[in-house]
Amino acid sequence: MELLIKELKKVLIGGGAHVGVKDATAAIPFDLLGEKPHGLPYSIWQLVEHIRIAQWDMLEFSKDGNHKSPAWPDEYWPKENAPADKNSWDKTLKQIDDDLEAFIELVEQRDLYEPIPHGSGQSILREALQIADHTAYHTAEIVVIRRLLGIWK
After folding, report:
1. What's 115's domain CATH number?
2. Distance (Å, whole) CA 112 – CA 94
3. pLDDT per 10-residue tile (average), the chain, 153 residues
């Protein structure tokens, strides 16, 4: 079990086969957060905010039987192409970090296989894999946008 938890933490944070959100969002010029190059449907801001909302939802679902998920898909995606200000951007990045840390605590403390009581068969393991998969998918899109904008390593 210890090895599984170690590997889950690694994939949740972003490592091994893919870059993590923290690295993918580092040092992006604020004025480029709302750009949608080459007709892409989402900006970096929209992708990062979507990651935040989805991860928060999965965390809260895992902890709280009274949690009500946002309406899909409208409440999972921001309508604005860019954050209102630098504070909004920083707040979103901080919440992603804080919520991930809180979810990792669940991974470390709860039975990974036990069904979540208020769910329909979900477990902490399933939610961990879903967070990791969802975040990796959209993080790759962020990297692609950064490449198209000429602001990737």
Report:
1. 1.20.120.450
2. 26
3. 95 85 97 97 98 98 97 97 98 98 98 97 98 96 98 94
